[in-house]
Each structure stands twice: as C-alpha cells, then as structure tokens.
Task: structure prediction
Amino acid sequence: MSGTQLTVTLSGGGTGDARAVVRALQGTFGAPDELPADENATVHTATFGDAEAGRAGRAGESSERLSAPVTVTVQGTPEAVRRASDTLTGAFTARDDGVASGDQEQERQLLLVP
Result:
C-alpha cells in the first residue's frame, strides 16, 4: 500500500449505503477508484489513491442517511485513517470498534448507524 492510499471496506446495509459512505469521504480524499455498484455484493470496497487530493474539501458533511448499520474498515497511513475516521464520525452516528497498528499503516473499524 502506498503512503497516500486509503482502502475502505464496507459490509452491512446495501449498495446505496456503501455509496453514501464513500461519497462522504470524497470531500476529504477526492474521488475513489470507483463507487460501489454491485447490487448483489455483501462487501464493498473503495480505494482512494491520493489521500491528499481532497484535503481542502468539506469534511464531515453528509446529507445522505443510511438505511441500515454499516461496518466500515479503513486502512492506510495513521494520518489517512485518522482523517477518514474524523470524517465518518462527523457525517454519521458512529461507534469506534477498535484500531490495529502495523509498521507503517493502521486499520480502524467503525460501526455507522442510521
């Protein structure tokens, strides 16, 4: 994983919920590689290739609501993970389910609820 990449894995809810979460991160990280699209998938992923791209964007603002709880795992540099967590907790009602740190990257899991 490059120093500026953020990977987001989403489970629970539907494709619309996954898209809402990814769109909430766009103000902070810019556009992802692609938006979740497979209506039959139970797990969705999105990768933000340049975690600095949206730095000046409006973080933590989302007019979208979730239809069901969504478990989100964000993985990347500690700074990218912190910014993603801050953005998501500002945009949705969230519970922090923990963090795991490696040598140069970190992983955090959040539960977002409607």
